[in-house]
Queue: 4 jobs
Job 1
Amino acid sequence: MEIEVKTYMTVNGRNISSRQLEVLSAINRLGSKTAAAKELGISPPVVQRYMAQMEDVAETRLMASTPNGTELTEMGLRLLEIADMMECRCTDTREFTISCSPVTEELVMQAVSNTKVEASIIVSDDYTNIRSLKQGMSDMIILDDPQLLSEVDDYEWLDVGYMDMIHVDNGPSYIRYRYGAQRIAYEQLELMGVKYSIDAETYLLSDLMDSNKSFFVDEYLLQRKGLKIKSATDKRLLRHSITAVYRREVKEITRVLRYLQSKHMI
């Protein structure tokens, strides 16, 4: 069975056809309306008409004449960029893909290596990974924050373990790490009636360690770096589940799930 998905673009409430986008793409590649017409098997006046129609819809110029030929304007290039991205998302030629955060990156790499699953691994934050799953760019995502399951309630999911966070208390000024279930940690501060302010944010573990500010970080990340730090708050109060979310359970997902569960995360 062959399945093909087609999309169309809407600009200012009006449609731009795939044929018009083909003309835009040919002009961009060839730098000439005449060359584009020849490649597409249509006449130059037809190319001009397609471009005029698109510029009418976009309400701006999409191409400009230069001493070297015809070039697309910034808006013309933007339309083409979006069309290319959408076409890429509508194909299913990529390999099996798992998205996770730096918190679980090493676990996912171990799972892929030990199960011999051929996969691409994308490392980003929970929100970006959820979007990747919904857009069909990922087959499985590993969520750090269980509250975000409400964003993916149409998908299958399974808790594969738990992690504890470490609270480093250097006073009321905090630096926030971009990854992990930080929401749970700061909610705990509020439950305890602690007054605090988040005065910085970082993607890097090293920034946390060098900041002299207070912060929360998953204990697992510290262990990977050979660091052992006593938590200022009971780690059990900062515990959060690690959840695998996926569309349906295929053989690759089954193997990865079994491996993650076998690690017996706290």
Note: The first helix runs from residue 18 to 30.
Job 2
Amino acid sequence: METLDPDLLRTFLAFVDGGSLARAASAIGRSPSAVTAQMQRLEEIVGEPLLSPQGRGRSLTPAGEDLVGHARRILAVHTEAWLALKGARAGGRIAIGTTQDFADHGLPDLLRAFAGSHPRVRIELRVGRSLELGSALQAGQLDLAITMRHAASPDEAALISEPMLWLCSEKGLATRQEMVPLALLDPYCGFREAALNALDAAGRRYRLAAGSASLAGLRTAVNAGIALTPRTRRFAHSGIVEASPDLDLPPLPIADFAIRLGREAGRPARDLAELLGSGLALPS
């Protein structure tokens, strides 16, 4: 009996969570052809087709649907064992910085698992914007930071790539408008620049309906139906969904995030960076 390689299962779940092979490739940092090859290898091991053609994409077969729960449990046990071995004797302090997107979605469960397996490590968490967190990392105030990536940096331990999406209230816009109403963070913001560049390139007129220094302000404006905002799927909850294709909005680029380590980061911080690099790449 062949074993189920955790790397293959991570790719499979990246497809399940992302909804397409292209998004799976982006999430795990591999090429689409490499993802296809991994899925074919997993199907060989299982002995059953896991994906079937559906329109221009793929959907899960009954065997694929059965594998989802098993894959999540296998990876959970794999992570638990890895953490237990790493954390048995670790001590000290880790100062972590993260953007609000990850603080709301993905990071809490991973920090809980890490804290449970590293009882002698004190964790301090700081939530802020990417530029602020990058400066704090450079100043030695943080051991580890999750920031939006604008250029390659030698302190990067892992990368997370996720599609940018146009998001709006699940009830739609409150009124029909000729110009695209936007809710954007104050400059500088990578999502803001990407949205404005995409709209300009498409010749779409727009207006700033809401500006904010925090994601809480954007969420209020979007939930009220007065604006759209560009974010990743992590922001799509609590009444916020992907915008309807009927709005004919231009495509947005991939958002790249870097998990970065401070110059004085110790072994526990490096272990946590490794955990986040694999765990955050699989949005649930």
Note: The radius of gyration is 20 Å.
Job 3
Amino acid sequence: MNIGLRNDEVILVPYEEIWRTEFEKTREELVALTNLKSHQIEHIGSTSIEGIRAKPIIDLLVGVGGLAYLEKPFFKVLMQAGFYRLRVERPDEIVCAKFMDDTFQIKTHFIHIVQYEGEKWQELLFFRNYLRANEEAKKHYEELKQSFFVTGLQGIAAYTDYKEDFVRSILAKRGEES
């Protein structure tokens, strides 16, 4: 399976069906190790959108009762599954990563821990579901991501910033559909 990126590396590869299988395997492992239920773990990011080129990293959305209530034992259990809490500062979100091996050079998975059914949970699922259901938006998103490589910009922060206006435009549709 072709998954994993070095720190700050940005590459896109064609969609692979194995990404869905890897997500399901990881979800089952997390359910077995934690008190999480299957419905609290969702596949997000471009690897969850069939047919779109993606960074080859599996993104999982994990919904919990409250971030403030997570204790060290929860993160110790995640470590048993190979996930390490990152020092990433994001509002209402904790990020963990799984690595290819104990050199910690290549990340293969991310867990985005958020309030279950909270605002961040809703936004991330809306974005995924919108792209899954709208071929035109999916194609536009893929073209935008591909165009990043001709800008001269580099790194994951620049890549994320480059896509921000598109992401916001899709999330604005969430209010329109309410």
Note: The first strand starts at residue 5 and ends at 6.
Job 4
Amino acid sequence: MKPIAILQHEPTQGPGVLLEHLAMQGIPHQILCPPEERSAPRLARDYSGVVVLGSNHGVNEHLPWMHDECRLLQDALRCDVPVLGHCFGAQMLARAMGARVRKHLCPNIGWSTVWVTTAAQRSMDLPASAVIFHWHYDTFDIPSGATRTMYSSHCLNKGFQHGRHWAFQGHLEVTAESIRQWCRAGHDELLHVQGPAVQTELEILRAARQRIACLHGIALNTYGAWTRQLDRPALVAVPMGRAMR
């Protein structure tokens, strides 16, 4: 089976729970860091899927490595190589599909509830609602041909689906340790950012102790639904008599 390409942009924003799922399923993967490598792969068909993680950057910064990522995602769309976008990755997938990404009315940082459409509950093995982790300032329009999968009180477009391509404007992948690292790295930011959908560092860490186990279970179910779509090598049956010769 070809590996899954995982595009990671920040040391504190790794694949987390996704790696646990891939290990349990025996699915190979390759972690790439486009900002450090200053490029991204060109051909999506070299991989069984493409995962795009979060970033401290916004897609409207138009950095050179972002253009490479966008081309990779557009190639994945052409070749129907499944894409899974988390937060910045969701925005990149929206951009690759021609949708607008813009500054949201308010920042969304911390733990809050998202509601899941009936169709997404079935296809993504998600509950009707879930408390997940968020850290974003931008939002996207739902791309043409895609359908909304999640929404929240402060952000209408929390996710979309286009066939085997899924985008989440939030973080299913986080672990207790990655949230602690993220808060340490964003300590000064959290002291100054304000808004109706923003929690303090203390509130984030306190909620993490209560919420992380449930989020972990939801993530494993959803990642399972996404990876079941991946193309796998066909098994060829060998006749018993021929195998014994």
Note: The mean pLDDT is 95.
